[in-house]
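idk why but the lab printer keeps eating my pages so im just putting this in chat instead. protein + zinc ion:
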Amino acid sequence: MKDLTHASAGALVGAAVCLAAGCPVVGAVVGGIAAMIPDLDMPTSGIGRRFPYLSSLIHGAFGHRKHFHTVYACAAISLLLSMIVVGLCFIFFNSSVVVFYALLACTLVSMLLGHLGLDMATRSGLQPLHPYGPHFKWFFSDEHRHWESIMTVGFIALTIIVCIVHL
Ligand SMILES: [Zn+2]
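predcted complex ->
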């Protein structure tokens, strides 16, 4: 899957989750970024090229689509990212605990659905409970690029609609 597909799906999930907390735009931004994080385990990915040393380190330690592409890793990263974002929000905007739970849910669900869900739809697939549990894979490959583009445009359009509905 392309970085933009992951980011747009994460943005949609993040906007929808944070709509309940009244901050869909923040949710879209955090969700979009969060949904690209699992690909830090691949130095040639978009986010991997932005953080080459960190990406090479993670790739060397875990490989691609293994431990860093699991439900456990997503949960740990979501907690860490939420604490950092909410810490910054608390310092600059005096935000509440509700925002913490909204962002935690946003990052977690964005990574699980926006990233792992889409990677499971590819031909090589992934094992979300690696090294245990089933290995999910589906049909998306290079011949299906047009569907991926259509999905990406749909995710972006729906994200914009969710953010506009809130205004
Ligand atoms: Zn991935």
